[in-house]
């Protein structure tokens, strides 16, 4: 039987060739990586800022004048009328809409007294009240302890009767309160009314 001895020189040559190939691949990878680093660093750069990007929110600010005791009368008799103007101003930076509710300290006299609110009255006085202007409310009850809406509705959003004012604008409302001449009850009563102006933005608030 013939025994064939392995060709050690060929095996060693193949192993050496594989080692050289691995070294070549490693060297190539290192060279590529080094080239990438050099390529990444060899650029010009610049940074530009856009500054002064300022944002400011608007304001809703309603004011009335006079702010207290706008209208009233003592010792009223059937047939008496009291008339008084009230200026509403949008002191904010946004257009607003407003509504008005009225709450009284009792119900009996508040139901007997008739309130009328007008806008566009040239002269807000007893003598001139019926001359011109547009009626916004009444004649109807002055108010109640539960409160009633006398202009618009304070519910959020546009409601029938709501008033709109542009920023920095104002308007004059003319209030007239009458104790009807045919009144036979309610002597000696007192009621105090509080008018509440509720304002909201109109922008994004249909």
List how many beta strands DSSP finds: 9
Count of DSSP helices? 2
Query: Order of SSEs, N→C?
Result: HEEEHEEEEEE
Under the CATH scheme, the architecture of the domain at 78-183 and 190-201 is Sandwich
- What's the overall average pLDDT, rounded? 91
Structural class: alpha+beta
Q: Sketch the major β-sheet.
A: 5 strands, antiparallel
Spans of at least 5 consecutive residues whose pLDDT stays below 50 are none
Q: Quote the beta fraction.
A: 25-35%
Q: What is the helix fraction of residues, given as a range?
A: 10-25%
CATH class of the domain at 78-183 and 190-201: Mainly Beta
Explain what the structure shows.
The chain is of the alpha+beta class and 206 residues long. The protein has a domain at 78-183 and 190-201: Immunoglobulin-like. Helix content is 19%, strand content 30%. It has helices at residues 8-41, 108-112, and strands spanning 62-65, 81-90, 96-104, 114-119, 134-141, 148-151, 163-165, 170-178, 193-201. The strands form two sheets. Strands 1-2-8-4-5 form a five-stranded antiparallel sheet. The longest helix has 34 residues, at 8-41. The chain is rod-shaped.
Short description:
The protein has 206 residues and is α+β, with helices and mostly antiparallel strands. The chain has 2 helices and 9 strands; from the N terminus they run H-E-E-E-H-E-E-E-E-E-E.
